[in-house]
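Two quick folds needed for the group meeting slides. Do the first one here.
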Amino acid sequence: MSKPVVLRPTSTVGDAFRAMHEHRYSGLPIVDDDRRVIGYIDLLELALRYLEDFPAMAEAVAEPIDDEPVS
């Protein structure tokens, strides 16, 4: 049996994105040193946290680029 994919409290956002991408998961549990689940993080939460850290990006995503249709 393979080892479950988990994150630690010290894992970075990059660690979480890489693990989810590599294993094709949309979320992962966060475990302590005794491997007890202490939290859970998913792609939506990561994306929202990322956008909170970069307000200019959040504004750019919220505004349409232009009104002309793509041809």
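Then this one, please, same format:
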Amino acid sequence: MGTRVRGVLTASVLAVAGSATAMASSSIDASANGPTVNGSGSTWVQIALDQWRADIAQQGYSINYQGVGSSAGRQAFTQGTVDFAASEIPYQPGEPRPGRSFEYLPDVAGGTSLMYNLHAPNGSRITSLRLNAHAAARIFTAGMTSWQDPEIQALNPGLSIAETHINAVVRSDGSGTSAQFSLYLANEAPSVWNPFASAQGCPAPCSNWPPVFPNSENGSDQVASFVADATRGPGAIGYVEAGYAKGYSFPVASLLNASGNYTQPTAVNVATALQHAQFNSDNTQNLTSVYVSPEPNAYPMSSYSYMIVQTGGFDPAKGAVLGRWLIYIACGGQREASPLGYSPLPPVLIQNVFDAEHRIPGAPPTPPIDRVNCPNPTVANAPGTAATAAPISSYGSAGGTSGNGNGPAANATSGPTADATTSAGASASASASASASASADGVATLGSAQREAAFLAALTAAQGARTGSLLPLLICGICIVVAVFVPFFLGWRRRAAGGGDRHG
């Protein structure tokens, strides 16, 4: 009898818990501004996309994004299992394409960087490694295996590296980062890259790096995690978007550019190089001129990331959410590009985003491109005037990029660690002193301190609501206990009384 009662009570409590969960879920859905929009793809841009979807979630909009690699993202978009994809390269010849209309639009700029973990003989971390395209190509085609290689020594006079073996870490998945890196090597080190690509059957853009290395990782974060690991990392070098190295507080190699200077992938240096990007009619990029940018501070391995969005037959309710997010990305969201390790979009590319956004069913009207209605740090013009770009030297101001790292001497002595420290300090200071500002799309831009404060406030409110909700659940539980036990108890008393009469 006791077992049966416990079973009834367990079922009842589980039913109450299920009802509470359902009520909580429905309240969350009711507060959301439209349906959830789903996307997948690039890990190169994932740091920025995750930040921006967290920002817009403060306004009740739900964006889900899975960093599965550019190739898998494009495939998912083709299959219709996601609403948008992110990729560093467009659909390739022979690759299955969606059977519906779509467009490419830029979301952010950045520098593909070579993150490394090296030490001096005294055990201190090296932050001044210099490489050129030829050395990078030899490393990532298995043609160079020692940090004491004469080419490394020639590029880094006076630099003593404790590690001997070069542990190159590549991507194991179909990757836009791999594709962009291979395009750079194919253009700037063809004598090394082309024989390797021919032998391995992977001409640039090579999304699936040939399996010639023992260490390959799925996604940019796993590559960065490997390089930064205290056990596996010493002697390692991998290619990631600069924001990942910044997040792990690890250095990236200074790359030799066409002017003979070694430069870092700062927001300013990336934007300088991308002045030379050429765009095709579908908004895809040709970076051949970027690799040989003549400016002293240009970072040669700079590029844009794309979002791939549907423009025909799309759910207008989802289009409203996606369109609003795209406006935020192009405007206020770009203020976070520099502190996240990227470079903001200039006005001409903001317009490209807006042009594509206009063709998404249900998307809201876009604001004027001016510094009030579209608070992108690259926008300089006042309301009512033609869109004008701010000086590139100011692109890092929102996030505090310190210095350009120009010239061989500057990069050899300072390295990226100082830049990261100054950037973090400037960003925290700006966030602490500035209040949230809203662009014309009504989405507020929050600094890191404000996001943390908002999260803590939401957590406190949730905890208070959760505490308050225990009372009705407790009452409901008591009612269930009464409903189960009282009839049982009364029935037992009646049976006991009846039994006494029969046997008395």
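Slide caption for protein two: The mean pLDDT is 80.
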